[in-house]
Write a structure and sequence with these properties.
Elements (H helix, E strand, L loop, with lengths): L1 E2 L13 H4 L2 H23 L28 H6 L6 E6 L4 E9 L8 E12 L7 E14 L2 E13 L4 E13 L5 E13 L5 E11 L2 E12 L10 E6 L5 E6 L4 E6 L4 E5 L5
Parallel strand pairs: 1-14
Antiparallel strand pairs: 2-3, 3-4, 4-5, 5-6, 6-7, 7-8, 8-9, 9-10, 10-11, 11-12, 12-13, 13-14
């Protein structure tokens, strides 16, 4: 039986010991940190060209070319609004591009994006099948997205095919505060897939780390972000308190609520941070 959705605090700085054992708090912290992680992933995927070639936010294929101001930033600047909220600079010698966001809104429900992301490119030879590859290193500094804040680093190995499909193997380390104001540190490893001309980014993988002192492991199962800020219907998270073994399973309905199932089989609806 699904219970009524509990009323949730907007910004709780800490929990009591009793609250740390509450499955609702575990579900909140798992969904909130996954949302923040996914914001950094989808933001990073927005730097990849949406054309038939693979590049850093331009129509040029940078896999074997030089990184220069002339071929970096055009597509990303066009993607984020209002006009002028994103500026891009580059250093051809170090193959580095720096993105400065100032209260931008972008694709996949990215809102109120402020902060700096630096991207360093390592070209990789294309495969015999015609697929292009890039290896990228990301550093995000004071990045605010959808009411959460994070400092983060990530490594991405990206493959592009001539048919328009993209895949990214993603490894990242993050620290910051969730949209509810809860401090976290996380590491994650995921695969991210999308197709040129389509609206959604699909994520699978896992993450580990602490949220206000609670050790949480999260399995990400067919987690999809499309136009809206909230995950698409059918997305799923399995969240485990690594200290006591308590598990909740989260299934999203495509709006600002989700249903979680506890170990004992009971079900509860929660309001997501993306709906606050």
């Amino acid at each position: 039986m699904v219970a009524a959705a509990p009323v949730l605090a907007g910004c709780a700085a800490h929990h009591s010991a009793a609250a740390d054992d509450d499955t609702t708090a575990l579900a909140q912290d798992g969904t909130d940190t996954s949302a923040t992680e996914n914001d950094t992933e989808t933001l990073s995927s927005s730097f990849i060209a949406s054309t038939g070639t693979l590049g850093l936010a331009s129509s040029g294929d940078l896999g074997g070319g030089a990184l220069a101001a002339a071929n970096v930033g055009d597509a990303a600047r066009a993607t984020y609004v209002p006009a002028g909220c994103l500026t891009v600079t580059s250093d051809p010698t170090s193959r580095t591009a720096t993105y400065h966001f100032d209260h931008c809104s972008g694709p996949y429900g990215l809102g109120e994006v402020t902060g700096t992301v630096t991207v360093t490119l390592t070209p990789v030879a294309s495969s015999a099948t015609g697929a292009s590859r890039l290896k990228l290193d990301f550093t995000g500094t004071g990045l605010k997205v959808n009411r959460a804040t994070a400092d983060w680093t990530a490594q991405a190995d990206i493959t592009s095919t001539p048919t328009g499909s993209r895949s990214m193997v993603w490894r990242a380390q993050l620290s910051g505060t969730t949209a509810r104001g809860r401090a976290f540190t996380r590491t994650n490893q995921k695969t991210i897939a999308w197709t040129v001309g389509q609206e959604c980014v699909l994520v699978n993988g896992f993450s580990d780390g602490n949220v206000i002192g609670r050790n949480i492991h999260t399995d990400v199962i067919n987690y999809s972000r499309c136009k809206g800020e909230c995950p698409a219907a059918g997305s799923e998270l399995r969240i485990t308190n690594a200290t006591n073994g308590k598990v909740v399973d989260i299934k999203y309905d495509g709006a600002n609520r989700a249903t979680f199932t506890a170990t004992n089989g009971s079900q509860t609806q929660i309001v997501l941070a993306c709906g606050l």
